[in-house]
């Protein structure tokens, strides 16, 4: 089974740029949701937009999905202009919206076949493809059930299957695992990883750092409508934060007390970041930091050493934790 | 880069569908949904006209002097209005919650269609085709056939045009309902349409008594009502009576409402689906 469109000679061009944006902007009245972003997405890669709610990532995705017209800059998808060739571009995209937008009154199977009709796929081919995709997302036994009877995780998998009905060259996923329980999340990730492995280009937005780290080859971090960093997850971590982070908690000490305590930690790591409930010490060697704390007779109530993550990158770049910004 | 698809679609499918093709593709959703609810429409199409005929047409009709209703039996008088009223009732089902829900996270079918090659106008046309063509020509036809068993058609085969009149009523109202249901922000206000539009239209349209019997100050409401224009046309078809105005005036009024409504609905859906 292949989900990938191929070139006429049968060989995909992995260097082909599927999406390119230059100084891309979108305003709603006085509010500038996207403030001039530049990026390129290549065939076969998994590209992520990372940011808190309101960062502008969903607006950017809508422009790529050709349902929102940019108000400035330039955007090309598959080398075409979304303004004049939106329908032709959308015919080559797969979209998994955050709210699924499945038809609850229809069966699982009907959802796929009806959706296939929007792309002009003939009934017989649509039915075959639907059966194949239900197998892929492990929903074959539920084919005749109404969508409203499915769990949240199953509905999300069905939305992913639906997005593949037209053999898209690029699949756009908006917050693919938001609202799912951990088990359902892992199952969705596993299916997305399979897709990626089969060479389908993926574009996703997320505010889950672990999701971005697991799935994305490259990503951009957005904040207040701008791209503030870009690169592979590893590059971003290497560039913007140290290898390790030590989390220090001091009993019930909170914001102001922790800010004061942070001053006493100067020099135990590369950077000290007081948060409302803990202090983060960015360091290249957690053991050295532990030794430095002991030498100063600083005794936190708990110490957790871990490797730096994209969460830390975001925190360093914006001064805010993503989780705090979630609605 | 030219692409070869592996799912039966051709390269030609990867362009914007034409107006009719786009509307048809959007319409297929309504058709699929109808397959799940068609049995519910049996009540509207079969049982309701029977109940109206037995209780009002025959029951109340026994007390009505035919001279008061243009020389027809009362059952003959109300039959054409019933056919058109069913069309209005169906719009209440098809063009309020299903339209409003199309933009919401609890429905979202318009949002789903928008992510495909379909344009907002395709989506509008598909839904309107269902409400103004498919529904009247299936369900109103069933109503008309059921009423035939009551022997209420004094005209000949022309009675079939009553269904066309019902479709015209649908066409005149459906786009305006679409516009309204697309504009309303709060779900709880959706029922207003039944209180302030469907109900008055049903009352002031000469379905159950001649509209000319109403007080002069209410006559403008009668003239404004699409159901009155449709009922006049339908009665001319089923009973051979002369409509209140020349047929082309009734048709022109309904057509004008349909066209202006379509432009209003198009403007609104484009606003809603172009983010």
Automatic annotation (TrEMBL), chain B:
Transmembrane segments: 42-64, 70-91, 133-153, 159-180, 192-211, 248-265
Bilayer disposition of the protein: Multi-pass membrane protein
Domain of life: Bacteria
Primary residence: membrane
GO molecular function term, any single one: ABC-type transporter activity
Entry's localization field: Membrane
ABC-2 type transporter transmembrane domain boundaries: 33-236
Pfam families named among the record's database cross-references: ABC2_membrane
InterPro entries xrefs: ABC2_TM (IPR013525), ABC_2_transport (IPR000412), Nod_factor_ABC_transporter (IPR051784)
Alphabetical keyword list: Antibiotic resistance, Membrane, Transmembrane, Transmembrane helix
GO-annotated biological processes: response to antibiotic
CC annotations in GO: ATP-binding cassette (ABC) transporter complex
UniProt name for this protein: ABC transporter
Species of origin: Glycomyces terrestris
Lineage: Bacteria, Bacillati, Actinomycetota, Actinomycetes, Glycomycetales
């Amino acid at each position: 089974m292949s989900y990938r469109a191929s070139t006429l000679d049968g060989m995909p061009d992995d260097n082909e740029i599927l999406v390119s944006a230059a100084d891309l902007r979108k305003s709603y009245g006085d509010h500038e949701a996207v403030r001039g972003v530049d990026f390129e997405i290549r065939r076969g890669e998994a590209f992520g937009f990372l940011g808190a709610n309101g960062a502008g990532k969903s607006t950017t995705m809508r422009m790529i999905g050709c349902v929102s017209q940019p108000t400035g800059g330039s955007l090309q998808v598959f080398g075409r202009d979304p303004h004049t060739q939106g329908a032709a571009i959308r015919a080559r995209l797969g979209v998994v919206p955050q709210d699924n937008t499945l038809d609850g009154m229809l069966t699982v199977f009907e959802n796929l076949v009806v959706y296939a009709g929007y792309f002009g796929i003939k009934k017989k081919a649509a039915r075959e493809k639907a059966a194949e995709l239900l197998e892929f997302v492990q929903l074959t036994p539920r084919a005749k059930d109404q969508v409203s009877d499915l769990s949240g995780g199953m509905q999300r998998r069905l939305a992913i299957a639906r997005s593949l009905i037209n053999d898209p060259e690029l699949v756009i996923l908006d917050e693919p695992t938001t609202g799912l329980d951990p088990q359902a999340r892992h199952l969705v990730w596993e299916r997305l990883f399979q897709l990626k492995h089969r060479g389908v280009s993926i574009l996703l937005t997320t505010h889950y750092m672990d999701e971005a780290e697991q799935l994305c080859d490259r990503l951009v971090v957005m904040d207040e409508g701008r791209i503030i960093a870009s690169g592979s997850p590893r590059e971003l971590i290497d560039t913007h934060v140290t290898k390790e982070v030590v989390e220090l908690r001091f009993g019930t000490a909170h914001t102001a007390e922790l800010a004061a305590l942070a001053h006493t930690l100067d020099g135990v790591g590369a950077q000290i970041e007081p948060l409302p409930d803990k202090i983060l010490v960015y360091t290249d060697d957690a053991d050295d930091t532990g030794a430095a704390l002991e030498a100063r007779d600083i005794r936190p109530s708990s110490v957790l050493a871990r490797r730096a993550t994209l969460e830390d990158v975001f925190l360093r770049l914006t001064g805010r934790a993503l989780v705090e910004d979630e609605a | 880069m030219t692409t070869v698809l592996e799912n039966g679609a051709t390269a030609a499918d990867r362009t914007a569908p034409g107006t009719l093709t786009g509307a048809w593709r959007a319409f297929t959703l309504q058709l699929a949904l109808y397959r799940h609810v068609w049995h519910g429409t049996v009540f509207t199409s079969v049982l309701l006209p029977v109940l109206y005929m037995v209780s009002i047409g025959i029951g109340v009709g026994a007390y009505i002097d035919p001279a008061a209703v243009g020389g027809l039996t009362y059952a003959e008088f109300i039959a054409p209005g019933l056919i058109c009223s069913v069309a209005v009732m169906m719009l209440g089902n098809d063009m309020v919650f299903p339209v409003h829900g199309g933009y919401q996270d609890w429905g979202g079918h318009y949002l789903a269609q928008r992510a495909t090659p379909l344009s907002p106008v395709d989506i509008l046309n598909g839904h309107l085709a269902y409400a103004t063509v498919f529904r009247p020509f299936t369900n109103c036809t069933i109503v008309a056939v059921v009423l035939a068993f009551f022997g209420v058609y004094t005209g000949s085969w022309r009675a079939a045009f009553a269904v066309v009149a019902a479709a015209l009523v649908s066409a005149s109202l459906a786009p305006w309902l679409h516009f309204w249901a697309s504009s309303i922000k709060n779900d709880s206000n959706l029922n207003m349409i039944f209180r302030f539009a469907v109900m008055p239209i049903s009352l002031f349209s000469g379905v159950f008594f001649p509209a000319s019997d109403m007080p002069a100050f209410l006559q403008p409401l009668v003239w404004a009502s699409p159901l009155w224009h449709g009922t006049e046309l339908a009665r001319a078809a089923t009973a051979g009576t002369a409509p209140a105005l020349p047929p082309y005036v009734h048709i022109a009024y309904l057509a004008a409402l349909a066209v202006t409504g379509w432009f209003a609905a198009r403007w609104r859906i484009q606003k809603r689906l172009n983010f």
